[in-house]
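Sample pair:
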Amino acid sequence: MLCQVCGRSTFGRRHDERHLFLMAAVDGRPIADGERTTSPPVCEPCAIESVRACPRLRKGHAAALVQHTALWGVAGIVHDPTTLTPLLSDTDGGLTEVSFDDPLIRWTLAYRTVVTLHRVTTVDLDTLVTQAAAA
């Protein structure tokens, strides 16, 4: 639970002990409860800078405060158990999400951890920053 920008812990940064997740918007939909992600959390100051600096986030983003994350699996390159040939995916830069209970997990070269987000509250980033400044 380290900020994906500055690398500092996101624990203890908010009085409610929730973590801010920021992702590029997919079809304008908000971050949903139970959604899987490979994106780490982000602290509020870094979230503002990210939206200004990142072209993907400038096109549209979704933000949410998350109470709990659960480990789900990994995103990586799955290899054929017989030929050891990489089985490339069309999504996420060729990475495939594989759950920890999938037998293919032992044939996967992991690049990222995948977590599920729970007790999600969608937030408007501008409003969140205004509230933090007023507190």
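The first strand starts at residue 19 and ends at 24.
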